[in-house]
Give the backbone structure.
Amino acid sequence: MVLSNEDLQSQVEALLGANILHSEINFDILSIEVAADKIHSIIAQLQKDEKLRFEFLTILGGVHYPEQINREFAVVYHVHSWKHKIRLRLKAFLPLSNPSIDSITDLYPCANWMERETYDFYGISFNNHPDLRRILNEDSMDYFPLRKEYALEDATREDKDDRFFGRF
Amino acid sequence: MGKIDDDKVINGEGYQLTTLDKAVGLARANSVWPLPFATSCCGIEFMATMGSAYDMSRFGMERLSFSPRQADLLIVAGTISKKLGPILKQVYEQMAEPKWVLSVGACASSGGIFDTYSVLQGIDRIIPVDVYVPGCPPRPEQIIDGVMNIHKLVKKESMRRRYSSEYKDLMSDYKIEIKDNGAK
């Protein structure tokens, strides 16, 4: 059975109620914002719900919005329902002062490496993660490279010139 | 050639005078065993170079050595990320002397188009390089030209290069230890 986004929105609202802080449909996917400290129980509810059955975690990642004070980091989850062939996007915002959120590795084992990647690039720490350490970058790296305050370019470069890379 | 009596002279074992360094250099240059450290598109070009159309076996190089212990020439073809850097250095250190390094393509030589925090901006930051091949990726002809230049170096190289003070200085610049077995 294929659900439309509007049907999904009403079903998710019935299930989660006031836990949904904000919801909108963009890029054909229903997107809901939830409180960061409730993320584990909300995703568990969506996964275990008999009707919706969001049994697959498509992706988990981070975003940095330096201009949003006390909402600098977003952790974005895409959960997928094989039964309804539909996807739901969840967003939880975190402050720069304490970017930590509960791990969902106990619900979806595939979240393990994705949470490590999010930690690696944004410095968001996941509570109760079994093995939270860098995964893609070298272990000796001393910063989180996708935070906007760090330049994309290698700091030790000598022969690269902005002009040759289309930047002026 | 003259008389039949000269047969012994003409057909006997001949000899040629040269220095041992030159004879050894000639032998080494015509049997360089390469270790391909290929990570991306330059590696595909290197595969074409090894194939029958370009045929590296003309130069005694058809025997690729995937063990660093038996390799003479490290061919680094492709982007080397910073995380891969220590592994490349370890492979270089495991190679037995004498050894040479060919850096194939823009990425291995300078980081290429990858002007970013995660890519090593040239392998010469961690290991010494003998010949650079430009191009993104270079054509097989260019790789062969690089190999020819390596051959020129190999022919000229002193047999006991590793005991020279210049070589020791170069290695200490890269913080690579040379094991001295007592020979001079």
Remarks:
- The first strand of chain B starts at residue 34 and ends at 38.
- Chain B has seven helices and four strands.
- Residues 140-156 of chain B form the longest helix (17 residues).
- Chain B touches chain A through twelve residues (CB under 8 Å).
